[in-house]
Structures are given as structure tokens and as C-alpha cells.
Amino acid sequence: MSEHNNTLFLADLTDGMPFDGFVLVRSAEFRDSPAGKVYLDMSVSDRTGTMKAIKWDASVAPPSVGSVIHIRASGNEYKGHMQLRLEKVEPVKATDHIDWNSLIPSAPEDPAAMRAEITAAAEEIPDSDYSLLTCALLERCGDRLLTFPAAKQVHHAERSGLLHHTVTMLRAAKALLPIYPQLNASLLIAGIIVHDLGKTEEMDANELGVVSDYTLEGKLLGHIVRGVIIIEEEGKKLGIHPQKILLLQHMVLSHHGIPEYGSPKPPMLAEAEFLHLIDTLDARMNQMEAAIAYTSPGSFSEKIWSLDDRQIYRMPYFNSQT
């Protein structure tokens, strides 16, 4: 049996360090260099995160997104961040032994525990209608929640990422709610739990948490519209008052804030504004954490398009005496 178990993770790479092991393909395409040369541009990942990988020729066809490949490469520090310079790219063989635990970027907490925390929060919502509706929407998603990512590439693009994103937002809300007692806690907690559940119908994700493509509903409607639809469907089944359904739908419809980011309506409730702000906070903190993972201390990351093309600075390490 061929043994290529990774003994080195992507996050451990330094400039010039060799890498020989398996990675998951997040994106792969041919591109043209400024000099007109075609090259293979990929994003690959293991459980420690995602890294850009480049093969400076077109000798290998772009692998399928979501597939596992064996690569031989070396770390290449470019403008303060690490990437892979690919020497060899090949599909896995039947004789290869793959340690899946080393490959899958996963949420840092146990998915069953996160789901239990979210379910408990839903059951404890003071308004019984919102509690019932929120629990029904969670039940609709079923066990897919245990592995489903929160995104294909941007934030919490990891196994169990949707649970990770939701539970972090819940904790932030519970910490802040005592400061803003004027908010309707029932509507806010329900909105946090259900705001991204439409993603389970928007993306085609496998049990590894890798999104291969968007579903037909995802491409034609998107998770915000699907989220509004499923609230309507489940709310009517349960006989929830139409205005309560409408308010929760507005929470989902407006959580991206503005039309440019996908929300047909801006937040028009204080609870909706709060949801939008902590959603943005959690998503951006996750993106910044990922950006500096492969950035050397004292350097800037590459430009992050989802953060308005900002570069993120990784502070140097300081000891306790400085």
C-alpha cells in the first residue's frame, strides 16, 4: 500500500520547505500570466486551512473541485504570505491510504455539541411561537447541519462551518443583549438561528463539508430567498401568526444589510440591524483569522476581495515584557 500520509500541514509550511501529501481541491482553473503563458491556479486545503497553489504550466488539467489529489510542492513566500509552488499533481490511487482527519478543514468544536447548544437556545426562546418555528426549521435541515459549511469559499468554509458561525453569533448576542434590553430577544435569537439555514438548500455540499457547486435553487434564488420561503412554509404548517412570520422573514431578508451584498431590503427593525452587525462581525473575524494563518509575523496578507480588497497585518510576536 502506498503511504502518503501528511506529516506536514499547510499551516506549518515555510519558504522553501518541501511538501509531499494529499490536499482537497477548493478551486482549480487555467489562467494566463501577464506574459501570455497558461498556468494552473488552484486553492487547496487540509484541516489547517486553505492555500493558493500554482503550477507554472498547463501540463495538468484542473482537478475537480472537491476531489482529493496528491501533490509534490514547496512552500513559496510571496509578499508576506505562503503559497505552494507545484511540481507534481496527480489523482489518488486505489492503493493510497488517506487520513481524512488530516484533510478536512473543520470547525474547532464538536458539531454534535454545537447543534445541541443551538437546539437548546431554540427551545428556550421565550415566545413559544418563535421557539416552535425555529425548532421546526432546525428539524427540517436534519443531520446535514452536522457537516454543512457556511460558505463555499468566503467565511466558515469548513466542515460544520454553519454550526460554528451560528453558535458564535448566538454567544455574541447573549453577551450583548443585557446591554440592549429594548431588543426583542425572542425575535433576535430566532433570527440568528435561522438566518443562514437556506444555505442547506443553496449549496451542494458533501459530508466532508466541501461545496462542489450551487443547487438550481441556489443559482436562481439564493439562500436569502430560500430562507424566506421555508419560514413561510413551516410557519403556515404550524399556524404561526402571519405578522410573526413576516418579522422573522424580514430578519433573514435584510441580514446582508444592503442590495449590493444580496439583501433586497435594509434592516428596518432594531433586531434586524443587530443581526446584520453580528453576522458581519463574525464573518469578518473568521476571514481575518484565515488571512493571517499563512502570513508571516510582521507582514501583510494578500488582498482579500471579500474584505474590500484590504490586506490584513499580522502583528509580530511579543513577549510579556514588551
Main traits of this protein?
5-stranded mixed beta barrel; 2 domains; 20% strand; OB fold (Dihydrolipoamide Acetyltransferase, E2P); disordered N terminus; alpha+beta; elongated; 322 residues; two-stranded parallel ribbon
Structure in words:
With 322 residues, the chain is α+β, with helices and mostly antiparallel strands. The chain has 2 domains: 2-103, Beta Barrel (OB fold (Dihydrolipoamide Acetyltransferase, E2P)); 111-286, no CATH class. Helices cover 37% and strands 20% of the residues. The protein has helices at 100-103, 111-123, 128-141, 161-176, 185-194, 199-202, 216-220, 223-238, 242-253, 270-293, and strands at 2-3, 18-32, 38-46, 49-55, 68-78, 81-91, 96-97, 203-205, 211-214. A 5-stranded mixed barrel has the order 2-3-4-6-5. A two-stranded parallel ribbon has the order 1-7. The chain has a two-stranded antiparallel sheet with strand order 8-9. The longest helix is centred in the C-terminal third of the chain and has 24 residues, at 270-293. Mean pLDDT is 89; it is low at 1-5.
